[in-house]
Task: inverse folding
């Protein structure tokens, strides 16, 4: 007998929706229910290999049960909007899989499943119903089983009895007595689940129970049954699944068919289901690649001559390290045509390794090509290649298209712009991953220790893919008019960042050693105090143990739970609230802060020192933040505390080379100045033109002359209000930050907008335009889509509104800083100065300057940064000079 799998779609969809929360694509479209449902379908197809399969949905129309009994499911809330929008997409995916689905007007899925199951039995098929709903247990009999995917169990008649407590033939009787409050099935008042099952197990069925009603021992049950026969009959009609619907059924339509793979790829791309895409892509297309390894100088010279004719190339360098400044060159791949590429190995070292061209000879031959401005260079994250080649004596010129930056400009919301993902998204091609050839964990090898032919294909593929992607992505850049932003800011900035990474920063290790010992002692002292005040020792780094101490032993009130329902949250917000009630949470916060600084910076920075240079070389990332701001890593310099004494001592360990000093240039309130320019608010503009302290002015406007707060406290809170406006902060959030009531916070916001009316108009305009266009822009044309505004969830929509307010301001400030960095860098190069930009943090630049260049550098910084772009208000740069980072 062949087996038919019948899927109760709504049962699985609801289960997935509530089991997986917060999942959406970068456009804000919710995908949690789709992902969970699809996971189950894929698992069934893979593991069960069904001979026939069909999916059944509830009718979207009013059902006959609801028509006959208006209260049926009446108290159920409507399907959440962020779930209802996913249903059509699930049906699209089923169509792409060529899986038949049913939706019969006015009938629920159970009735359709019951009818198909009966017809299947009569046609000599076995049936397995896939559902998490207890109602379908009544359908189980010889030839029909239920599979519960959440518990991964298949139930026949005997197993339904063990699992549910009664046999399938008794399920309707139990549900009739018990009722269902969720669906408004009344049942018999006073008889719950246990009572219903006990009665049916005692009397075998409802008919026998009613014949022997006087033999019921429980007087309450007996009386309630006698008084509610109508409700019992009604409930029985509501819970009983119909099996005789008029459905024309062609079982051949339920045979699994080959999916529409191109359509699935399109849908999975749209939904950003990377793991599902990975499963679809195959390696068959790799056979068409023409990749060649060059071991002969003559072949290399032939390639170089061809490059001279073509005037472009796509490249990818291979090394033995992820850190470019520390990396040794292992090989270089070059491609001029799609699906064709060449790999030149020069640094492979393993037993039986074939003879390679001598490294310096290859460098000398390629140097004129790579340094020629009119030969255009293409690559993915080409900053890495630039740094590696620079360290090998090649100053690469003519860089044209960087696919990573192009992708970022097209969609800054996208979490990842790596080559593998871009290839799958735009080329329908899954490249060999680094882990496939290098391994993972303890078995991971560096590329110089891996066979040349393996690395050759991997490297050629990367150069090839970058070439193919560059054409597609740049065409999209043109369509969105982003060429100027790319060529005038992002591409030249890449070179600036490369030079910053190459320059690195010198570190005073003695300061860090001393600070590490002090922190260790202080952390131990706090730990002992925590144990003393809590009356027990526990692992402070274990949230579970900490929660037990705080909420069980100390009996502090629970603030919120984690996703795991039995676990209580001990995050920063919770500990701050609890600190008002007990000293231990405050001590834990201090312990966490000191431990993080010690592990993330004080102890980590010395490990990041480059052996060759004796400096740290942080990576600066221009394709990470959605607003356009730069970020840094290894180490993350932007997270070092600014105002604390500990942060200052840590910064004091960053020192210049002998004979040089640090010069800092910090934009003064650049985001508020951008706001003044964009809003054209005259009060704000005048304040900046007069050189007033904008925070003091806001304090006067908001708090008035008779405020009981000190001038210093007024200014502090006014500063919070000023920046809250930029970030679109709600009155509720502002109240928490100011430690006032929500009413007072709302009053502050209203007073602010009374004084700065144009700011309010500008904010309303930005939000309105973002709703209309679906995106927001910066002054220099950077585009950021705001898909959150289309989300049916109000909380997510409000987050989108904050993005629409903040991005034009913060993004414009970021663009101005980037342009200033390029302008300053070019001026330094033009004047042949030895000064270097070495650190960038938000609105601040740090340069290392020889003492004889300090005055000139200060002049360049002031000139280029303050005149970077014409605004309605002056841009002001604060300059400082110091012997370490803490002094500037």
Result:
């Amino acid at each position: 007998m062949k087996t038919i799998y019948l899927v109760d779609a709504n049962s699985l969809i609801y289960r997935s929706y509530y089991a997986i929360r917060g999942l959406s694509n970068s456009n804000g479209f919710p995908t949690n229910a789709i992902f969970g449902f699809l996971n189950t379908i894929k698992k069934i197809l893979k593991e069960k290999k069904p001979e026939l399969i069909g999916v059944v949905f509830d009718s979207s129309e009013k059902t006959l049960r609801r028509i006959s009994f208006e209260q049926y499911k009446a108290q159920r809330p409507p399907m959440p909007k962020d779930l209802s929008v996913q249903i059509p997409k699930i049906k699209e995916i089923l169509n792409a899989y060529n899986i038949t689905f049913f939706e019969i007007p006015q009938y629920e899925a159970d009735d359709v499943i019951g009818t198909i199951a009966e017809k299947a039995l009569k046609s000599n098929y076995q049936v397995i119903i896939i559902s998490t709903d207890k109602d379908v247990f009544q359908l189980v009999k010889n030839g029909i089983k239920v599979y519960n995917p959440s518990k991964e169990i298949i139930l026949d008649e005997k197993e339904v009895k063990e699992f549910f407590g009664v046999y399938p033939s008794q399920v309707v009787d139990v549900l009739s007595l018990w009722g269902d409050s969720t669906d408004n099935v009344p049942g018999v008042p006073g008889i719950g689940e246990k009572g219903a099952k006990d009665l049916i197990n005692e009397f075998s069925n409802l008919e026998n129970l009613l014949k022997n009603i006087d033999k019921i021992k429980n007087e309450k049950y007996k009386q309630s049954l006698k008084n509610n026969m109508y409700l019992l009959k009604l409930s029985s009609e509501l819970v009983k699944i119909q099996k005789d619907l008029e459905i024309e059924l062609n079982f051949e339509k339920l045979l699994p068919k080959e999916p529409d793979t191109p359509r699935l790829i399109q849908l999975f791309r749209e939904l950003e289901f990377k793991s599902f895409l990975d499963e679809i892509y195959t390696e068959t297309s790799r056979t068409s690649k023409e990749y060649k390894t060059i071991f002969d100088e003559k072949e290399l010279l032939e390639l170089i001559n061809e490059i001279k004719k073509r005037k472009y190339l796509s490249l990818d360098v291979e090394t033995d390290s992820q850190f470019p400044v520390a990396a040794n060159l292992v090989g270089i791949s070059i491609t001029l045509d799609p699906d064709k590429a060449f790999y030149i190995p020069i640094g492979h070292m393993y037993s039986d390794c074939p003879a390679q061209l001598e490294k310096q000879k290859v460098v000398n031959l390629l140097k004129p090509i790579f340094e020629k401005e009119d030969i255009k260079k293409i690559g993915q994250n080409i900053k890495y290649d630039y740094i590696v080649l620079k360290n090998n004596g090649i100053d690469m010129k003519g860089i044209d298209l960087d696919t990573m930056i192009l992708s970022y400009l097209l969609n800054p919301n996208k979490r990842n712009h790596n080559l593998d993902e871009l290839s799958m998204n735009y080329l329908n091609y899954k490249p060999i991953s680094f882990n496939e050839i290098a391994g993972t964990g303890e078995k991971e090898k560096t590329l110089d220790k891996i066979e040349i032919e393996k690395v050759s294909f991997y490297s050629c593929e990367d150069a090839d893919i970058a070439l193919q992607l560059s054409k597609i992505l740049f065409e999209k850049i043109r369509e969105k008019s982003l060429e100027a932003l790319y060529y005038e800011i992002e591409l030249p900035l890449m070179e600036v960042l490369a030079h910053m990474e190459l320059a690195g920063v010198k570190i005073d290790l003695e300061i860090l050693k001393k600070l590490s010992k002090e922190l260790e002692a202080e952390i131990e002292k706090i730990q002992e105090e925590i144990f003393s005040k809590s009356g027990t020792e526990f692992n402070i780094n274990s949230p579970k143990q900490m929660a037990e101490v705080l909420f069980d032993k100390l009996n502090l009130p629970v603030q919120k739970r984690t996703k795991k329902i039995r676990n209580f949250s001990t995050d920063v917000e919770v500990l701050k609230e609890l600190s008002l009630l007990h000293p231990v949470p405050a001590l834990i916060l201090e312990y966490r802060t000191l431990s993080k600084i010690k592990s993330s910076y004080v102890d980590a920075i010395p490990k990041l020192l480059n052996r060759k240079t004796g400096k740290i070389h942080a990576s600066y990332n221009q394709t990470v933040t959605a607003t356009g701001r730069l970020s840094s890593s290894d180490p993350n310099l932007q997270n070092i505390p600014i105002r604390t004494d500990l942060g200052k001592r840590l910064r004091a360990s960053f020192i210049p080379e002998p004979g040089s000093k640090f010069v800092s240039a910090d934009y003064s309130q650049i985001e508020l100045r951008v706001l003044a320019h964009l809003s054209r608010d005259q009060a704000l503009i005048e304040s900046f033109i007069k050189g007033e302290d904008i925070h003091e002015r806001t304090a006067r406007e908001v708090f008035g002359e008779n405020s009981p707060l000190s001038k210093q406290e007024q200014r502090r809170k006014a500063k919070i209000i000023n920046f809250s406006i930029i970030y679109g902060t709600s009155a509720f959030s502002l109240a928490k930050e100011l430690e006032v009531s929500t009413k007072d916070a709302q009053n502050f916001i209203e007073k602010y907008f009374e004084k700065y009316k144009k700011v309010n108009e500008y904010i309303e305009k930005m939000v309105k335009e973002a709703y209309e266009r679906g995106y927001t822009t910066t002054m220099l044309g950077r585009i950021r889509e705001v898909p959150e505004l289309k989300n049916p969830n109000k909380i997510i929509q409000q987050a989108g509104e904050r993005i629409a307010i903040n991005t034009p301001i913060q993004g414009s400030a970021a663009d101005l800083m980037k342009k200033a960095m390029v302008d300053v860098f070019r001026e330094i190069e033009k004047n042949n100065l030895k000064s270097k930009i070495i650190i960038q943090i938000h609105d601040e630049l740090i340069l290392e300057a020889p003492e004889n260049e300090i005055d000139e550098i200060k002049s360049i910084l002031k000139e280029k940064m303050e005149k970077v772009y014409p605004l309605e208000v002056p841009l002001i740069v604060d300059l400082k000079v110091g012997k370490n980072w803490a002094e500037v």
The chain has 36 helices and 23 strands.
